């Protein structure tokens, strides 16, 4: 058995202690503001298979540091906009870790949606699933 020093549950709890978490009802309300952008950090296969929040921006968790850094050849201009950034994954572990990372890097006005896409759908938030 691998002897890890820090487990995923502890990592997520440490992230939650230093990031902003938004209840899903508040996130649904915030998403109506044109200055708010929902960022989906799930894998592209999950997004295609399970659906997504309309108008959300897809940024795989494994690329966030590269897409956020203006010095990176992979930089995405969307992160240069003065917006409210609400990150989500399916449950909320990956988005908690992602927000911890982007906040450490200096992205302002970033938070994650408590409960992720699962909570969003249960609360009746806008949702889309493409055919095929």
Brief account:
This protein has six helices and five strands. The protein is an alpha/beta fold and 132 residues long. It has a five-stranded parallel sheet, sandwiched between helices.
Key features of this structure:
globular; Oxidized Rhodanese, domain 1; 132 residues; alpha/beta; five-stranded parallel beta sheet
Structure description:
The structure is a single chain. With 132 residues, this protein is an alpha/beta fold. Helices cover 36% and strands 14% of the residues. It has a five-stranded parallel beta sheet with strand order 1-5-4-2-3, sandwiched between helices.
How would you summarize the topology of this molecule?
Layout: H1 8-16, E1 21-22, H2 24-30, E2 36-40, H3 44-50, E3 57-58, H4 64-68, E4 84-88, H5 93-105, E5 110-113, H6 116-122
Parallel strand pairs: 1-5, 2-3, 2-4, 4-5
Q: The biggest beta sheet, please?
A: 5 strands, parallel
Number of strand segments: 5
Gross CATH architecture: 3-Layer(aba) Sandwich
Question: Unreliable segments (pLDDT under 50, ≥5 consecutive)?
Answer: none
Number of helices: 6
SSE class: alpha/beta
CATH fold title:
Oxidized Rhodanese, domain 1
Helix content percent band: 25-40%
Total tally of structural domains: 1
CA-based shape = globular
> Approximately what portion of the residues adopt beta-strand conformation?
5-15%
Terminal CA distance? 41 Å
